[in-house]
Write a structure and sequence with these properties.
about 650 residues, alpha+beta, 19 helices, 24 strands
């Protein structure tokens, strides 16, 4: 699950498509401050250049911006609660450039040397009886924050905020005073400095400031400008990196007219989110119950040491998954997504907490959990070839050299066609492998699937051609649908329910339509072959029947609204060549039922198609084969689910 968080962000980044936008940049002059103020447009941005230019012209037409309203409120920036392990790790990664695993090593050394308290704790609330004043007094002579400590001890010391007491250890605090030279500088000093300042801040008064917000109107558009004035810095005195910026708005009054200094229409483009920082990853793990304060650094260190991710030191220690890490997570998703999602681990952690608090029986939880994981393991082993296929497509040089073919409906980038058997499409962006049926595949005039957005293909099975969606072929969207074994297809790749098939269907197949229904299977349907002329024909979705039209036919279309009154079948529209039309008066258009119309029946020829996919049999060359075969699939879903635990 830890790796899955990083991979999910990676997929969001690579699948992002930039979109241009335009925003108004307006500055007004403030006489009270003697400078210009940068406003914020209420609409923020628009995605049409002409609309943006219209708004710019409207605002530029006004020479002044009218102050519509002014609000002033006193606000507080609350002091921090006690410091627990997770907050320490996030601060070390975001502000000190230290990895979580390394930060714990340094913290444990400081603890052993007697400079800080025990660093592995989930508590943010100090327990009753904790000697806050005594801990604060130990810092009164410190050269960096001693003066502020003296002021707190003189009477401004504040009761800490209420937090959560996990009952294990109190929050992390300094035990004795230490200077940078005493600790030798470097990582040890940076970590101690943060722990000491955080503790002092937790018993300091809140930061108090006045916030002023004004709404301006120009050209019918609203703009906002704000500022704040610090009244009492409080705890930010000892943690200046978190201080409120003193940026007064000045004496702006309602009804005042401010001269407009600048009106610009600026163009930009949407951008994807950045890769997860290590601090953000730690926060996600905490919120989803992945690991404990003791094991979170180990989980992150494991995925890094196993080359599943790389930690980029620039930009705040960003967690970037490698090709190996992305492929591994995608492989788990192909077999059993729960293995890569936080739900399972989080649930197990909750069950352990229930055992620890006496709310659940140890033996029953262990027995049930082992049974669930055993079923999950068997399911994974049975489908391990899915993982093998993905790894082959990701790392086999033969697969990586496949030519760009059709667009992926998820990232809108081109997938590669791997022509070696079994032929398949591979999307390197999504790390997705889509198997294709045995036969020839071509592009279908840049058409997209209505269900999933993937680019449609034409699948040629012998002398019959069918429309096909590669995603829906591998992930049937209809109840009871299943992908053919090893891509062996005898008819259409999709059932009639799929929109690309339903749009071309005219009537039940006279050979297999009713027969298959009696056997409990979907009956075959005659559908218009999508490749068109010069020899138009209808092909069966289930069997090899082909209904050929003679060369007098110029074009054929199918409309769902044209229905035969006698049998309920759809009536195709047949357009004949002008010089070969059998219709009276030289007419060329004929809407008729393929099953009922005598004229149309005189223009057709029934034939058996040639199949490209050959399946069945009990071994090569007519032999019985040597494999023992696979066990029939169980009706029980082996994928573990704790939802009804």
């Amino acid at each position: 699950p830890t790796l899955s968080f990083a991979v999910q962000r990676h997929l969001e980044i690579v699948s992002h498509t930039p979109e241009d936008f335009w925003s108004l940049h307006v500055e007004v002059r403030s006489a009270s401050l003697g400078k210009t103020l940068v406003t914020r447009w209420e609409r923020e941005r628009v995605f049409d250049a002409d609309v943006g230019e219209m708004f710019r012209s409207m605002v530029a037409g006004d020479q002044h911006a009218l102050v519509e309203s002014v609000e002033e409120t006193e606000e507080f920036k609350r002091r921090p609660a006690g410091l627990n392990t997770v907050d320490l790790l996030k601060a070390a990664s975001a502000g000190m450039g230290m990895g979580a695993h390394r930060a714990m090593q340094v913290a444990e050394r400081l603890y052993i040397q007697g400079f800080i308290s025990y660093p592995r704790t989930g508590s943010t609330a100090y327990p009753p009886g904790f000697d806050l004043k005594g801990t604060l007094k130990a810092q009164r002579g410190h050269p960096d924050w001693g003066e502020w400590v003296e002021e707190l001890l003189a009477g401004s010391m504040t009761k800490p905020r209420g937090g959560k007491d996990e009952g294990d250890h109190p929050p992390i605090t300094p035990v004795r005073s230490a200077t940078e030279s005493a600790l030798g500088g470097g990582e040890a000093w940076r970590l101690y400095d943060f722990v000491a300042r955080h503790f002092i801040a937790s018993v300091s008064p809140d930061c108090v400031y006045v916030s002023r917000r004004a709404t301006l109107v120009a050209g019918g558009e609203r703009f906002r400008v704000s500022g704040q004035t610090v009244i009492a810095p409080g705890w930010t005195t000892v943690m200046p990196h978190r201080a409120v910026e003193d940026n007064p708005l000045g004496e702006i009054e309602r009804g005042e007219s401010l001269p407009i200094a600048t009106v610009e229409l600026r163009q930009g483009a949407t951008s994807p989110p950045p890769y997860l920082s290590e601090a953000e990853l730690i926060g996600l793990m905490e919120r989803n119950g992945i690991g404990t304060d003791a094991s979170i650094p180990t989980h992150i260190n494991n995925i890094e040491s196993r080359k599943y991710v790389k930690i980029q030191s620039q930009g705040g220690r960003r967690v970037v998954p490698t090709d190996l890490g992305v492929t591994l997570v995608q492989g788990y998703h192909r077999i059993d997504p729960e293995l890569a999602l936080p739900a399972v681990r989080s649930h197990v952690e909750k069950q352990l907490d229930m055992i620890a608090t006496g709310k659940a029986d140890h033996e029953s939880i262990v027995r049930h959990t082992l049974a669930q994981f055993a079923a999950k393991f068997r399911n994974f082993v049975d489908q391990i070839e899915r993982m093998d296929t993905l790894f082959e497509a990701s790392f086999d040089p033969t697969c990586s050299s496949g030519k760009p073919f059709s667009k992926c409906g998820r990232c809108l980038r081109y997938m590669r066609l791997v022509s070696t058997r079994p032929q398949r499409l591979y999307c390197p962006t999504q790390e997705e492998v889509l198997e294709l049926p045995t036969g020839t595949v071509k592009l279908y005039n840049n058409r997209e699937c209505q269900l999933c957005g993937f680019e449609l293909l034409l699948y040629q099975n012998g002398n019959r051609t069918y429309p096909m969606c590669p995603w829906c072929f591998n992930h049937p969207p209809f109840a009871g649908g299943s992908k053919p074994t090893k891509g062996l297809v005898s008819g259409a790749p999709h059932p009639r329910a799929h929109p690309i098939v339903d749009a071309l269907v005219v009537c039940p197949c006279p050979e297999c339509g009713e027969d298959d229904k009696l056997k409990g299977r979907e009956g075959g349907w005659l559908m218009l072959e999508p490749v068109g002329g010069p020899r138009w024909k209808f092909v069966c979705t289930g069997c090899a029947l082909v209904v050929k039209l003679n060369d007098s036919v110029h074009r054929v279309t199918v409309d769902k609204l044209d229905v035969c009154g006698a049998c309920g079948a759809r009536c195709p529209t047949v357009i004949y060549h002008k010089d070969r039309t059998p219709l009276a008066g030289g007419e060329t258009a004929h809407v008729a039922c393929l099953a009922c119309d005598d004229l149309l029946n005189s223009s057709i020829e029934l034939a058996r198609g040639r199949g490209a996919a050959r399946g069945g049999g009990r071994g090569g060359r007519g032999g019985r084969g040597r494999g023992r075969g696979r066990k029939p699939p169980s009706d029980h879903d082996q994928k573990m689910s704790f939802k009804d635990f």
